[in-house]
Specification:
Number of strands: 24
Helix content: 25-40%
Strand content: 15-25%
Bound molecules: 5'-O-[(S)-[(2-aminobenzoyl)oxy](hydroxy)phosphoryl]adenosine
Distance between the termini: 66 Å
Radius of gyration: 23 Å
CATH class of the domain at 38-191: Alpha Beta
Number of helices: 16
């Protein structure tokens, strides 16, 4: 291993001990990187050197930057960081902004200067920001001035944070003014080791405190050279677009890393709700769409009103893609959505198949460079067709920042993602549920997502979440929270219809004995259904009923 390029050794010092790391695989030749590596030199400077500086790179409603223009902006920010703000290699820098060219430039500048990026979601409040600041011991933050309020609150309550520099206003000490200094247009990438930490990505923390996952410079390229190259098959003429925030590694990969790795372009939208995405696809003639399954479902109704003829690939991740959504999207657009399971710990997608190899309803096969298996509680591989826990390993993997939960995620060198899966005899992986989301009712194991899928095939259902409610007789009972289309209210007649519909679609014992109609479902900031919150409600509900 090359000597670290970090003079601030905090990140390296707080990696888990090596024996707790997962086993890493670098079998493919494209995954063998030199010992010294700065990922930004590869993602950005290499295109200028290759004479592609004039190609479009970042596109947003307010500006378009070529590769050369982005490179200059990155250099200017990197000079401000190191010359004006005293940033040293290895320092963590917090970034806070909506998806935008300025956010991407800041991200790349921190990494190019050898810093460690800690990107945060715009929706985070002061308390959550302070948690990340304290945990990653952050002294410096760059922030879009429109998000100053919670940033300032966080600054007031975080001991380590010394400086916050804002951009987007004309103050004399704003990043914009500092960047204009003469001589700042050039910057040589810090000589980092391939194994220097480049990114600390916090998990969205559906339960417990968020975990900081640490990723090296080489990991940033590895996700491009595995999923981006072999499954997505990204090309220079691709134009990426999508909704996930850049602080969520699903968004970072799909909207920054994959396009830059191939010299393509990417559309950055501050607002990317389903109703914003469709017109933007038409306006910018996007070819590759990254969003969540619920957004695909929501876009279906409006698809016909828009010109989406530019689209080549659609990627869905974050939650399982219901087969009903896959089928409806294919029928309406002719495009087969590529489902893929990824995780913050793994950086990006590690199981998912290219469009021509999709088996509808399955997540797919391990991405080239990765290995997967389904294991029992002792960690032994089970036979095809048997339900068990998903274990994966590959060029990326879990290394938590100072966290005892490392030994829960990594066992015997395998990353245990917390998902229950079945592999079929052809090697396709079929998602069942999060391991702790399995409902056990009268001794039957029932996967909530399977009941949700069945409900979603009923025309009245817009969205739903299915969990177990504690029950004296059965242990748990299947409970469905349902949002109806057009905000309609449900009644006993509809509930009976929905129950019959589920019984006719999957094994009858899986039908929801309790149905509650709601206006909306609780979601995380990464758009995932918060089943734990529904479980809490379901538990309260049955406690209330017990008292009756
Ligand atoms: C679940 C899926 C079924 C699964 C992510 C793509 O979601 C991402 O990262 P997170 O850390 O969550 C990880 C967990 O989410 N999940 C994700 N994708 C799927 N379940 N089918 C899927 N296709 O429980 C997993 O363990 O928020 C996704 C790329 C980068 C990411 N960080």
């Amino acid at each position: 291993m090359a000597d670290s390029g970090h003079s601030d050794t905090f990140a390296r010092d707080h990696l888990p001990p090596r024996q707790q790391w997962p086993e890493f695989l670098f079998d493919l030749p494209e995954l063998r990187y030199p010992p010294r590596l700065n990922c930004v030199a590869e993602l950005l400077d290499s295109w200028i050197a290759a004479g592609k500086g004039g190609a479009p790179c970042l596109i947003s409603p307010s500006e378009t930057l070529t590769y050369a223009q982005l490179a200059e902006r990155v250099n200017r920010v990197a000079n401000v960081l190191t010359r004006d703000l005293g940033m040293r290699p290895g320092n963590r820098v917090l970034l806070r902004a909506p998806n935008s060219p300025a956010m991407v430039a800041a991200w790349l500048a921190v990494a190019k200067a050898g810093g460690v990026v800690v990107a945060t979601m715009p929706l985070l409040r002061a308390k959550e920001l302070s948690y990340a600041i304290d945990k990653a011991r952050i002294a410096l933050a760059l922030c879009d001035c429109r998000l100053a309020e919670d940033m300032e609150k966080a600054r007031a309550q975080s001991a380590s944070l010394e400086k916050v520099v804002y951009w987007g206003n004309d103050a004399a000490d704003a990043l914009d003014a500092l960047m204009r200094k003469p001589g700042y247009e050039r910057f040589t990438a810090a000589a980092c080791a391939a194994e220097d930490v480049c990114l600390i990505a916090f998990t969205s923390g559906t339960t417990g405190e968020p975990k900081g996952t640490m990723h090296f410079h080489r990991d940033i390229l590895a996700t491009c050279d595995s999923y981006g190259r072999h499954v997505l098959r990204a090309r220079a003429n691709d134009r990426f677009i999508g909704s996930p925030p850049l602080a969520f590694t699903f968004g970072l990969g799909g909207l920054v890393l994959f396009p830059l790795r191939v010299g393509g372009s990417t559309v950055l939208l501050e607002k990317a709700a389903p109703d914003d995405l469709l017109p933007a696809i038409a306006r910018y003639r996007a070819t590759a769409l990254f969003t969540a399954p619920t957004a695909y479902r929501a876009m279906l109704a409006r698809l016909a009103e828009h010109d989406f003829s530019s689209l080549r690939v659609c990627v869905s991740a974050g939650e399982a893609l219901p087969k009903a959504t896959f089928d409806a999207w294919q029928a309406a657009s002719g495009i087969r959505i590529m489902d893929g399971i990824g995780a913050t710990e793994m950086l990006h997608i590690f199981i998912g198949s290219p469009a021509d190899a999709i088996r509808p309803g399955a997540t797919g096969k391990p991405v080239p460079g990765y290995e997967a298996r389904v294991v029992d509680d002792q960690g032994n591989a089970v036979k095809p067709g048997t339900v068990g826990r998903l274990a994966v390993r590959g060029p990326t993997g879990c290394r938590y920042l100072a966290d005892a939960r490392q030994q829960k995620y990594v066992k015997d060198g395998w990353n245990i993602t917390g998902d229950t899966y079945v592999m079929d005899t052809d090697g396709y992986y079929w998602y069942q549920a999060r391991s702790d989301d399995m409902i056990i009712s009268s001794g039957y194991n029932i996967a909530g997502p399977e009941v949700e899928e069945a409900l979603l095939t009923h025309p009245a259902v817009a969205e739903c979440g299915v969990v177990g409610a504690p029950d004296e007789l059965r242990g748990q009972v299947v409970t469905a929270y349902i949002v109806l289309r057009d905000g309609k209210d449900g009644d006993a007649v509809l509930s009976k219809q929905l129950q019959d519909h589920v019984k006719a679609t999957v094994a009858p014992y899986k039908y929801p004995r309790i149905i509650e109609y709601v206006r909306e479902l609780p979601k995380t900031q990464t758009g995932k259904l918060q089943r734990f919150e529904l479980r809490r409600r379901a538990a309260n509900r049955s406690a209330r009923n017990d008292g009756d």
